[in-house]
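User: Sequence recovery, please. Input:
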């Protein structure tokens, strides 16, 4: 059973919380490589990934193209513009591949949506997600919450959920292409579109769909603030 696994690196944001003039995904880490390069490298190296697509902030597509030249990535197929919101960037990528669903190569396509701001995703996580996609149509990565979580109302603690059932979401979030296409189609046509992430679109708009969880890692953290770099 052949599956075509597409990794989509979501780099459409401008990372306002990090500060500085550049989007955070273009900032270098200690080794001189940018956050985005680290994220792409991880999927470029993963055996189970067939192709990579970057969804880039429209103003910085040229930067991504320079990186492609400099790194000689062989799996990179597309660099496309992102939207104002994260979900719009996801939709842009999904639409691109949806148009290819007719071709035999993409009939069994999976799409792995990954935050560019998570540059330390491991080969183990990527491999486990690809493996899980053989049996599941929706796969997410999460880690158990080590902190107690409060649900808040009017500035006060309203509820304390049982910590053993709480997990913190990471990426990649991966789906069979027809499923995530359908979920977004329903969401975009609904009165109350609720979107936190791609998993949320499936969870809220195709509630009967099981979503399998692959265990993440602490090191697969998201770079959100300047201190994280």
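Assistant: Recovered sequence (229 residues):
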């Amino acid at each position: 059973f052949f599956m075509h696994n597409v990794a989509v690196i979501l780099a459409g944001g401008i990372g306002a919380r990090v500060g500085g003039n550049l989007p955070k995904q273009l900032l270098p880490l200690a080794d001189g490589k940018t956050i985005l390069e680290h994220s792409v490298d991880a999927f470029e190296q993963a055996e189970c990934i067939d192709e990579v697509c970057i969804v880039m902030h429209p103003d910085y597509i040229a930067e991504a193209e320079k990186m492609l030249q400099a790194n000689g990535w062989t799996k990179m197929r597309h660099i496309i513009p992102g939207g104002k919101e994260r979900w719009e960037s996801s939709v842009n990528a999904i639409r691109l591949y949806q148009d290819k669903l007719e071709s035999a190569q993409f009939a069994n396509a999976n799409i792995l949506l990954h935050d560019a701001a998570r540059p330390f995703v491991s080969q183990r996580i990527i491999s486990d997600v690809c493996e899980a996609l053989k049996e599941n149509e929706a796969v997410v990565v999460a880690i158990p919450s080590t902190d107690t979580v409060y649900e808040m109302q009017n500035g006060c603690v309203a509820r304390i959920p049982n910590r053993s059932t709480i997990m913190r979401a990471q990426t990649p979030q991966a789906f069979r292409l027809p499923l995530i296409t359908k979920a977004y189609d329903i969401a975009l046509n609904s009165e109350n579109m609720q979107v936190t992430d791609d998993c949320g679109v499936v969870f809220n708009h195709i509630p009967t769909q099981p979503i399998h969880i692959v265990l993440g890692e602490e090191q697969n953290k998201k770079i959100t603030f300047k201190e994280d770099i």
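The longest helix spans residues 86-98.
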